[in-house]
Amino acid sequence: MSGFMTSIAQAIVAAGLAPLLVGFIRWLKARLQGRRGAPPWQPYYELRKLFGKEAVVSHTASWLFKATPFVVFGTAVAVASLVPLVLAPPDPFAIGDLFAVVYLLLLGTFFLALAGLDTGSPFGGMGASREMTVVALTEPTVALSIVALALKAGSTSFSQIVTRTIAEPGMALGPGHLLAFASLFIVTLAETGRLPVDNPSTHLELTMIHEAMVLEYSGPYLALVEWGAALKLLIFLALAANLFIPWGIATTLSPSALIVGAATFVVKLAILAVAIAVLETRVAKLRLFRVPELLSASFVLALLAVMSTFLAR
Amino acid sequence: MLLFSKIWKTGIATELLEPRDPAAVAVGRDIERAVQRLLGRALAIREVDAGSCNGCELEIAGLASPIYDMERFGMHFVASPRHADLLLVTGPVTRNMEIPLRRTYEATPAPKLVVAVGDCARTCGVFRGSYAIVGAVDDVIPVDVHVGGCPPEPTDILRGILAAVDRLPDKKASSTPDGTRTVSS
Amino acid sequence: MTLGAAGLLLMAVGFVGGGAVAAVWPTDRGARAVTLAGAIAGCFGGLIAAVFSMATGRPAAAHLPQLVSSAGGIVLGLDRLGALFLALVSTTGLLAAIYGASYTKEYEGRHSLGMFGLMFNGFLLGMSLVTCAANVFTFLLAWELMAVTSYFLVMTESDSPETRQAGLWYAAMAHFALVLLLPMFLLMAPDPNATTFADLRLGARILPDVARDGVFLLALVAFGSKAGVVPLHVWLPRAHPEAPSHVSALMSGVMIKLGVYGLLRVLVDFLGAGPAWWGGLVLLAGSVSALAGVLYALTENDLKRLLAYSSVENVGVILLGIGAGLILQSYGLPALALVGFGAALLHTVNHACFKALLFLAAGSVVQQTHTRSMEQLGGLIKGMPYTSAVFLVGSAAAAALPPLNGFASEWMIFQALLSGAQTPQPGAAIGTPLAVGVLALTSGLAAACFVKAFGITFLAMPRSDRTTGATDGHWSARAVMIVLAGGCVVLGLSAPLAIGAMYRTIDAVSPIVGPVAAGVNARVWLAAPSGLARVSPVLLALLLTSIVVVVASTLRHRGLSLRYADTWGCGRIHQTSRMEYTSSAFAEPLRRIFSELYRPTQDLSISVHPESQYFVRSITYTSHIVPWFEKALYDPLTGAIKKLATWILRLQAGSVHLYLLYVSMALVAALVAAWWSQ
To answer: For residue C355, what are the contacts with CB-CB under 8 A and spacing of at least 6?
Structure first.
């Protein structure tokens, strides 16, 4: 029961922290561009404002359009309660493993793409088509990274992977681990709509992938979709951090372990956020038909990770 | 690497908004305090060119640059009026842009504000009386704040937007007899 | 007579009686009713026999040695594996028959419904007999009955040339499979007179290795062609769209699974364990089928053909599970092999459920709008709310989204492949992760494919006038689809119970001790072989719904002001359906990315004004995708057969003297052969 409560608490903390993560990345990018930028807690103001506005819904849209923000936000929160953030969920309470997490996020994307088509606007259809293409091409990379991790740990359950990596520190520096981390980082950029795959702050509809699907959303619906997207970014970064560099994560429910776990979690997220901000400042967005080249490069990395894991045994 | 050394050397280029700017801003109607509180800290702006010569657009584009940096006030541009709180309208309203301007206004969710930028938006400027013009922006959609100038400086535009949400760094509001509030230094 | 035998009798009587009476009934309306009655009786009989066999573990048997005794007579024996497939046939047949009663109303007066009823009941009888056949003759008889009756069912609307083409391909491929089945069975039979399955089981164990490999290859090709494995699947996307929708549902949901049944019977039951390359070959066939199936489904604009290609993809996924099981069995890991086979069986059942649902819903759409082309549909969610809701459930299940049934079986196949990756042999350790990558890619592409199928057909605005007046259809059709949608949800939530049943089924056929996962409540959790990874669809569903309920009620409590307006279109005056994304537009990025595989032909013709080439009158753009293996494999083959046939034609010169010469040569040869054999 206590494990169940900590999962729920973790999900709430993650949902609360996600806008700060997005705001921090934006603030850092602004500073790198030589301007002051909005404070890192700006997304909280934006969410509060959006919840106070009215929602405008198109005549052509159906019930699916109004239901999708809840599905997107709901799956993001559900996944946040399953993945190891501050605490590695002990086995009896793990109601999902890595594959379940991937497919839950796919459920959110599925409904978002349908909502994009539902409005009958060409931008929505374009966003849906491009997003499903990118997501379909990232799936094999994600699966192979999971296989690379699971081969070492012996299972796809989170607590197993975390405890095995903590027990064998030398494993974290092995080529399999590093290659899998690189491929998962590229997948993170693709799935969360970050440069070089998709520019989250673009105004040109023809360059949009994720943003194009949400052009019709307003008010509280938009708030839920944006919050869900921020939470997805936090989840992916947390996975990248805690599966590959799990030291500091709490394995017991004692208060000191939880405080240490929370502190290391925040530090790891901050480091990855800095990496993303620096990367987004450095690179330009790829043409849409160059994205498969990037994704197949990440697939090759993941395949090499699996092979080197096998050879290292 | 050259890029990052350049970033380090350049530093922050943003200029602080001076408290003493000429009064080119006229607040057209009373805006509810509740709306100003809601939109005050996070404002999404959609720019609509209703027929301008693009001079005002060039100045508005400067708003997002490091020198004027509107983001530090919590404002940012958005692509879709569904995401917007404030419409930034330039130019006199031409016949072809009358319906699109109305539709943009209808597409924006309430509560919403409108700031008209430039002399053309307020009084049709040099184009007054032309066969291609329907009228000023206020004839088509209700305008909350006018920012005068041809084109107005980015700082004036900033002060206009901030006046709409009552977040000017300084304000001494005084009422003039015709009911409009003019913000002066 | 045991309950099981009674069930089999009711099944035979129901189908035969229903079919025969329907064929001679004078009115079409009565023929429809008689067809339905016969099908219901027969399906109930089959269900009784299947449930009896699965519940008690005792096989239901029947024996009619007098019929064609030289071939061994009719021998029926229903063990656990056959019972599972018989239950599948009966349930889906029952639901399809109820749906068909209202669907075939539009055929009254145009096509003979008596003939249709005869063929429909014969089809159901053939499929049921395949699952309970216990000797070679019965099996082949039932197989041929199934093929012939389904041919006639496909040709119901034979006035269109595509249907006739489809029927031709279907008949050719079905008989190609039959031709390969005969030697496969006879290789295993120890004695020409001992052809019951029990004899085959004994005979197969004592075969030399070369003969075992031969049996394996013949079984893979013959049953693979029936199941729809690439490149033998070419009949599937031609025949399934042309058939009436409830027949398509039966063919896609059940008939191709009988290919899987045959494969499991020969490989797991008769042959037992084999070398590792068997599993590798099955994995390869499965991977190719899965990828090719989903890639061609993505570029389809015909709704039913898209669903047919998706069936090819799912058969590939089933073969991935079987391949994993075979590999693990060959490495002496029977507990892990059970997971692979069990996952494949679970996916068989799940696919039957959601594919039948999708075909029946598509049938409703096609019936109301009289077109199968998605480019002319759209906006149906407003007029057909029930159909669109169940199609959404079916699409989500096909895209393997939790907590529905597609997710549960794909998760199990992932875990089975992962166990293969942990074996020390290099072949398996490299091959199975690649298979995992292929499976992940196909499920991502399947999600994209079903976003397209559901989104273009049902959402946004209608793209043509064909959708005006479309409603949900008869209440019985709606009820059937809701039952199937409920089945998808229930199978998904109770997946741990279902996989346990699959393990017991395989165990009954080939004794494999199931994996013991300590400390796992097997009613709530799906567990990986090592027991370390687990997922609980029920708890996931509970978690999701509780979060959504909390968020939605908070929002409602705070108050949500809603306003309806036109779609934002950059301020343009009109929003018409011409501005929506089309079905080919949706798949265009993937078509470009995989253009090496698709090799689309493009044709652009511009007609200009006669007086100046700068004034364009019209532009026509056509793009066509012909599967390249049809060009590479089947065109040369059919060309060669035609050449051979033309050459042999010379023998039929038309002269009576030549024919008399042939007769006398044949007589001499027969006399010589008779004298030789003495």
So the answer is: C249, C252, C253, C307, C310, C311, C314, C394, C398
Q: How many domains, in total, are found in chain A?
A: 1
Could you tell me how many CB contacts below 8 A there are between chain A and chain B?
A: 88
**Rounded distance between C-alpha atoms, residue C246 and residue C229, angstroms:** 22
Is residue C617 within a helix (H) or strand (E), and if so which, with residue range? strand C612-624
Instruction: Quickly tell me which residue has 């004592």 as its tokens.
Output: C206
Residue of A139, A197, A290 best to disrupt the C interface, most CBs of C under 10 A: A139
Beta strands in C34-73 (DSSP E): 60-64
> Scanning the structure block, which residue is given the tokens 């690497």?
B1
Q: ipTM of this model? A: 0.94
What is the model's pLDDT at position B175?
37
C252-255 long-range CB contacts below 8 Å, 24 or more apart? C252/C307, C252/C308, C252/C311, C252/C355, C252/C356, C252/C359, C253/C92, C253/C351, C253/C352, C253/C353, C253/C355, C253/C356, C253/C359, C254/C88, C254/C89, C254/C92, C254/C93, C254/C127, C254/C352, C254/C356, C255/C127, C255/C146, C255/C150, C255/C226
For residue B128, give every residue at least 6 positions away whose Cβ sits within 8 Å of its Cβ, in sequence order, or none.
Answer: B92
Q: How far is C562 from chain B (nearest CA, A)?
A: 9
State how far the Cα of C207 lies from the Cα of A297, in Å rounded to an integer: 48
Amino acid (1-letter code) at residue C547: I
Interface test with B, best of C568, C572, C574, C575 (most B CBs within 10 A): C568
Domain limits for position A207: 2-311
CA A291, A292, A297: angle at the middle one, nearest 5? 100
A43-77 tens-digit pLDDT:
999 999 999 999 999 988 999 999 999 999 999 99
pLDDT tens, residue by residue, A146-192: 888 888 777 778 888 888 888 877 777 788 888 999 999 999 999 99
3-state SS assignment for residue C145: helix
Q: Which residue pairs from A254-260 have beta carbons closer than 8 angstroms and sit at least 24 positions apart in sequence?
A: A258/A86, A258/A87
Residue whose token pair is 């922006």: B137
Give the Cα separation of C662 and B132 in Å (integer): 95
Q: Which two tokens stand for residue B66?
A: 């490091």
Q: The pTM is what?
A: 0.93
Greater pLDDT, A95 or A92: A95
Which among C125, C48, C123, C121 has a CA at the least distance from the CA of C83? C48
Residue B176 has pLDDT above 50, yes or no: no
